[in-house]
Design brief:
The chain is built from 11 helices and 13 strands. The protein is an alpha/beta fold. The strands form 4 sheets. Strands 1-7-6-4-5 form a 5-stranded mixed beta sheet, with helices on both faces. Bound molecules: acetyl coenzyme *A.
């Protein structure tokens, strides 16, 4: 038997806190609207000029230390992000250099808010196939760099942060029980950063039209998010021969507290089994699941043999759910 298990988790949240009250001074919004419509009270903002790989490095160092694995022992580094330091090279390459992980291959995974689940699944498969032994998976975002701070419909939602997991080979028991990943490119316009790519290279015109910022149709996304997160969770559980009753800890993507409650209600999972930290950090895209998993473990909510279900959804559209037995 050869599979993968998580042996170390870490997180990094920039120290600067932006509270709802601060946003009241920037756009036409209120603490009351943001709190009741989203559950968000504050979010972290990275210092200007700090790239995604810097946040990733801080989270990774903690995860590696806890895993007892040296950076030089890493075979692969995956960074899930939609805010890479540069269009290329990848943030994973910058991180490889920061960590001096000279034996590691490195690449980014672009799957928006489901990025961490996509990257974890990729790492698991690389290990189970026998190609690699030690893999570092990071969800890291500086969403403040692509947020339009004059658009109240989006700027209240996002924050910066990073979470990291170190995976290694397990030869005794299976930890990764199943994964279900999905996508729907037909709805790509619901959540998009339209400028700066090959379709609309950066120009005076793209700048004028604010095409380098997140554009989101939140209302439509909300309904789809609930439906696909419920369906992805059920599919991952079925693949693992589990039911919702087997779940000990649900780690949902932290986009909106109302989405999380609606998903939990439909899956019939009690609030006490769901980890929610959106009030402190907002939506950190790929970093949300990574940080939530790390904090749930730090808080002692995840114990040996627990079934942990990750369930995420984001722009693409993309979604993914992964069932893990904690070893
Ligand atoms: N403050 C005050 N009023 C606001 C704000 C704000 N910040 N933002 C919008 N409003 C107003 C709107 O203008 C609208 O006013 P109107 O009725 O006069 O036109 C009213 O509030 C309602 O707006 P809705 O967009 O219908 O509000 P809704 O309840 O849907 O909440 C939200 C918006 C929070 C964005 C919600 O739709 C949501 O969370 N959607 C899902 C987001 C998501 O899952 N994204 C995917 C993951 S993110 C990723 O992949 C990076």
């Amino acid at each position: 038997m050869q599979s993968a298990k998580i042996v170390g988790l870490g997180k990094y949240l920039p120290p600067k806190i932006l509270r709802n009250k601060d946003l009241e001074r920037m756009v036409d919004t209120s603490d009351e609207w943001i709190t009741t419509r989203t559950g968000i009270r504050e979010r972290r903002i990275a210092e200007k000029g700090l790239g995604t790989s810097f946040l990733a490095r801080e989270a990774s160092r903690i995860a590696l230390k806890r895993a007892g694995i040296k950076a030089s022992q890493l075979d692969l580094i995956l960074v899930a992000t939609i805010t890479p330091d540069t269009q290329f090279p990848s943030s994973a390459c910058y991180l490889q250099n920061y960590l001096k992980a000279h034996s590691a291959a490195a690449f980014d995974v672009s799957a928006a808010c489901a990025g961490f689940v996509y990257a974890l699944t990729t790492a698991w498969q690389f290990i189970e196939s026998g190609l690699y032994k030690n893999v570092l998976v990071v969800g890291s975002e500086v969403l403040s760099s692509i947020t339009d701070w004059s658009d109240r419909s989006t700027c209240v939602l996002f924050g910066d942060g990073a979470g990291a997991a170190v995976l290694t080979r397990s030869t005794t028991r299976k930890s990764f029980l199943s994964s279900y990943l999905g996508a729907d490119g037909a709805n790509s316009d619901l959540l998009i950063l339209p400028g700066g790519g090959s379709r609309h290279p950066a120009s005076e015109e793209t700048l004028k039209q604010k095409m380098h910022f997140i554009k989101m149709k939140g209302n439509e996304l909300f309904r789809i998010a609930v439906r696909v997160m419920v369906s992805a969770a059920r599919k991952a559980l079925t693949k693992a021969h589990l039911t919702t009753e087997d779940i000990d800890v649900l780690i949902p993507h932290q986009a909106n507290e109302r989405i999380i409650s609606a998903v939990a209600k439909r899956l019939n999972i009690p609030q006490g089994k769901i980890y929610v930290n959106i009030s402190h950090y907002g939506n950190m895209s790929s970093a949300s699941s990574a940080v939530a998993l790390c904090e749930a473990w730090e808080d002692g909510l995840i114990k040996k043999d627990d079934i942990v279900l990750l369930d995420a959804f984001g722009g693409g559209l993309v979604w993914g759910s992964c069932a893990i037995r904690w070893l």
